[in-house]
């Protein structure tokens, strides 16, 4: 290479460095009314570089032809000397491919997707005749990554999958056949003193492959291949830890999200490990700035809010973990009427004796994050909550308390003022924790008190919310409150059955529970009515079962109210019969509803036959009483 060409090459390297600075640093300072100013400047420089590469390589070819030999390119091009036996034309193709790649990314970042696709496609065409070498393997992978992202953004998931899976194959093949640090994209346009070290080249190459796996995880998720998506997500997180390529809060949220997938598969050991890792890694983001510091500085305020929000989101994932673990245990232990099956409980407790041997196997089969210094912290946090199904009240309570602790943490950020939907969802999860814990409690009075805690936390919110703006939430709360009072009524009924003669205080409590449950069921049913107060002739699918169940339970509650007055008894039974009749008649008019409320319909039909007989007996008593 002549001295003139060397100068041109150095100028080219300086131009490339300037384009990188514009794209990666100065673009962040661009004004809102001209957000792509620096990107456009970088694009012009890249176009100039593209033309220069063509001209410079053409001059070198002529120079080589005239001398009959290649002149040493010197330190500037030292990194490219061992071009895997490929021709100078091959090297020129890679250089042009690199510039096309950066032009493609530039166009995509400025929201010109078609132009971006064209440049990335040209990049791939430059390499179509090249074998995979240390010089081009990074470009091959990164260009396919970008095309994968592009097509995923266009909702062509299968096309994105093709590009990304090819990128994965290229990486695996290269690592198997060579495995040495390949050239980075910047190597083609930097002087030797600015070139990345071998270690840095390998780090960047591994980072590109980590991105491949991350994008594949999203693609598999969108295709419904959840098992593969989970595997790729976990592998991505592990690699980010291994190569120290992560932002703590972002990594923690992704790990917490992955835990929710494992929960759906009842893989609680893996879910717990992800959550413990999320909590520990989130701690690396630092301490939450004080409220006073946040008021002093906008930066401190933003940091405070981000840390509080992300940690609250991780706490919400912990809540789901505890809740689902308890609920899945309940499914294992309940009999056909939803009560604790003592025989089944004893059987599972006996099986626990062999658990210690299996536990180590489970630990080995679980997906663990081998994260160096933080691994001990993760394991320490895991030990504070079980991943085994609780089989008795004490075990269930330990899990409940962990969940309740995270409820309190999540509520500190997701306050009612400003986060209504999130706050109510957290309250509903807290209520659900009490509900499932009550299942494990043998003492009926204590169980009733747990349900009362649910009422105490939900009722004030239900009263304060404006149904005009939060109709769906109000309906959920009304139905849950109605169900909670209904369960309390059943428990009080069970307690009363054990007594020879319930006293007036017990009867009053029982009636109050019936009335409260009816009130909230009726509020739910009234919310379905039109503005004119008319109940719909045909219920929407999402309201069909809740509405008919509400009618059925109102009917049962009305018939359960205890009264010494025959007139009141008759009025209550009349209302009960009307409600049972509603369920029966609706199912007759809409046969598709029969399968939705099969049990309730069967009981309603039975009561429609029996209640008139009971009502006639009361009328007879009333008539007899009048005669006397």
Which key features would you list for this structure?
elongated; 628 residues; 23 helices; mainly alpha
In short:
Helices cover 73% and strands 0% of the residues. The chain is elongated and about 125 Å long. With 628 residues, the chain is mainly alpha-helical.
The low-pLDDT segments are: 64-86
Structural class per helix/strand content? mainly alpha
Q: How large is the count of helical segments? A: 23
Distance between the termini: 128 Å
Fraction of helical residues? over 70%
- Approximately how much beta-strand content do the residues carry? under 5%
Rg = 35 Å
Average pLDDT over all residues: 89
What's the count of strands?
A: 0
SSE sequence, one letter per element: HHHHHHHHHHHHHHHHHHHHHHH
- Name the shape in a single word: elongated
Q: Give a quick account of the main beta sheet: strands, pairing sense, barrel closure.
A: none
What does this structure look like?
With 628 residues, the chain is mainly α. It has a domain at 528-628. It contains 23 helices and no strands.
Strand-helix topology:
Layout: H1 3-24, H2 37-67, H3 88-109, H4 113-126, H5 137-153, H6 157-177, H7 198-222, H8 226-242, H9 248-264, H10 268-283, H11 291-296, H12 298-333, H13 342-351, H14 355-365, H15 375-382, H16 393-413, H17 420-440, H18 444-464, H19 471-497, H20 504-526, H21 541-560, H22 566-589, H23 598-627
